[in-house]
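Figure 2 data, in text form.
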Amino acid sequence: MKTHYVAVQSRGTIALPAALRRRLHLDRPGAQVELVERDDGRIELRPLLPVPADQAWFWTERWQAMEREVDEDVAAGRVTVVDGPDALFEHLDGAGTVRSTDP
């Protein structure tokens, strides 16, 4: 863990050290810092990098909720691992799922 001391300017601004900005990629256009005020009085700064527009869907609350649901299923062992597409279709056919052969 590294400690950095920065001055708070009269308007509340701070300047992060250049080496830190480079290491955390905060020198990129659009980079932001999330400020979290904890209940114990600590302030955390977390680097945030911009998300390309064509990937923004992944970070919507709906999609993230689905990701958490999948993570819970995997952690609980509610998954089936198959070896390739043929085995997947065989598994799905055995589960009563109807498979379309349309392209």
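Caption note: The mean pLDDT is 88.
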